[in-house]
Amino acid sequence: MNSLNHVAIIMDGNGRWGIKHYNSRNKGHRAGLEVVEKIINVSLKKKISYLTLYAFSTENWKRPKKEINYLFKLLETFLKNQISDLEKKNIKLKIIGKKKLTPKLNKLILLSEKKTENNSSLQINLALNYGSKSEIIHTIKYLNKKNKIISEKNISNNLYTKKIPDPEILIRTGNTKRLSNFLLWQLAYTEIFFEKKLWPDFNEKDFNKIINKFLNLKRNFGSI
Ligand code: FPP
Fold it and tell me: Is residue 163 part of a domain?
């Protein structure tokens, strides 16, 4: 049976779900946040060590201002309301991405990371203002500046995800089959599961089904 330490998720389909049910994309994001909270609890139950969630990409700045503001408000609410819960559950929160959002969010992020930095049951990596190509370029520039050789090991050890094992599972909901500039380096040998359901409809049973499928897969990493 495969071991499972790290699950990454592209939570796609909030907008379509919101339009379908309430004619409002923002209502879809609200419903998506509830699923995030459920999946965090399942991850704890399953003793998964790392959960990486794609919440806002560097490309998402192209969305209407109203939607961006709503997403940032949701994130603020999540950080404010959940921080004591995360602490209670021994969860560590780490932001991956360029930490340049709104002054309020930047402050909350720093505070949440600080408050949870010594926790050890589950690490949530929240990808915010994240783009994988820019992460890789930034890492290579840094290695050059430090006169270090450009090797696989040095790159892996200097990405936002340094010290975190690569994900064994990537889930993308929303019936779309692409990586959208997410963890391009780290996903080199990851098992990818594309899920037809929109993120707000994704549930514990769907998550368990994917995990069980993964646990019984034959993984050969280029060998036979
Ligand atoms: C993609 O769906 C989803 C996002 C860009 C935002 C994800 C955010 C959340 C689930 C809520 C906040 C999360 C946290 C962790 C606080 P989409 O809007 O691209 O959907 P569409 O493809 O139907 O348009």
Answer: no
